[in-house]
Amino acid sequence: MFNLKFDPGLCEKCTTYDCIMDCQYITMGLDEAREERMKIIRGEDSKILHDCVTCYACEEYCPYANHPFYHIVEMQEKLGINPVPKPITKSQVVAMAPSGRIKHKAGTGPLVNLCYFPMLTGLIRGKLFKDASFFAGSDYMCQVMFLHFARDSVMKDRIPPMIEKIHEQYVSKRKSPEMVCFHDECYGTYTSWAPAHGIPVPFTPVHLFDYLRGELQDRKADINKLNIKAAYQRPCSNRLAPETDKAVDEIFDLIGVERAGREYDRKNALCCAAVLEAQQRFDQAEEVRARNLDDMKATGASHVVFNCPMCFFTLSGRVSELGMAPTLMSELCIQAVGDK
Ligand code: SF4
Ligand code: SF4
After folding, report:
1. Of 17, 45, 78, which residue constitutes the final position of a domain?
2. CB 74 within 8 A of CB 4
3. CA 30 – ligand 1 centroid, Å
4. Tens digit of pLDDT for each residue in 158-174?
5. Which of 89, 171, 181, 277: CA 20 to 30 A from 142?
6. What is the CATH number of the domain that holds 290?
7. Which one of 6, 11, 23 would you pick to mutate in the ligand 2 pocket, going by the greatest count of ligand atoms within 8 A of its CB?
8. Distances (CA, A) of 6 to 74, 185, 243
9. Pocket of ligand 1 (CB under 6 A)
10. Does 23 contact ligand 2 (Cβ within 6 A)?
């Protein structure tokens, strides 16, 4: 019923094959990249379908917004290729199903969607989130993590009713159609994955960074510049909304943070490697993680800033061991306006 907007004609005419040539995990020459992309288009098996680590980045790399990664995921499922072992995939499909486990609070301030992270509701506090409403839990989980598991069917089954539920239970009862997405993954669901599949979104998703930047601009007088240098860990799901990355620079400027210039940031960002472990690629996970952490450390940064809770859970221990302070973007902003 919901079909991916993918145009094979664009790939046939493509001269750069950026979706593969820029991939940090698959190395191919231009001719091979074209040949393998064409195999996928013809519905045939391709080494790309097996070697893809599901980093989402080719959604950003394709200059024509032709959704090469969503197409890979669709074809992996069609051909029965499982990036993550089937028993783990099956348990995740069950664990992440809507189950009525929800947490919410009503307020007169902004509406914040915390996705599957009810344990993070304590982060919604202070001047920046004054009297916020929030909701979190399995019923509002965006489900886009199943891109890592080649379960297009799970997303197509669960995302449309979840969107309707959020609208009916929260957004439609408010004056403003805006909903702040605390997690990049949710923002990517509503602004990229759903439109790419023709699924209507009856509310206005606001990226957390855009929300924080606006609040900070309105409260310049409250800001105590932090005067620190921080390495930024860009999450895989930010590849679905690359236009929001510039807000990191703007927020950092407002709160007195120097964004450490490093090799693995922006277009070259590296995955936190949690998904590589799920895929049982343990050696590759460690190699990617070590490269990423060494690069952060080499900048002389005192802090490492995360937005994705999964990246934070995965890397914060190793970041601390290296003498840097791991922190979430929202916490850094709360601190800059003097809230505890
Ligand atoms: S997905 Fe985009 S970059 Fe890749 S071959 Fe097709 S048009 Fe080119
Ligand atoms: S999702 Fe990442 S690993 Fe997979 S093909 Fe695209 S860029 Fe490469």
Report:
1. 78
2. yes
3. 12
4. 999 999 999 999 999 99
5. 277
6. 3.40.50.1860
7. 23
8. 11, 21, 21
9. 10-11, 14, 17-19, 37, 62, 64, 66, 68
10. yes
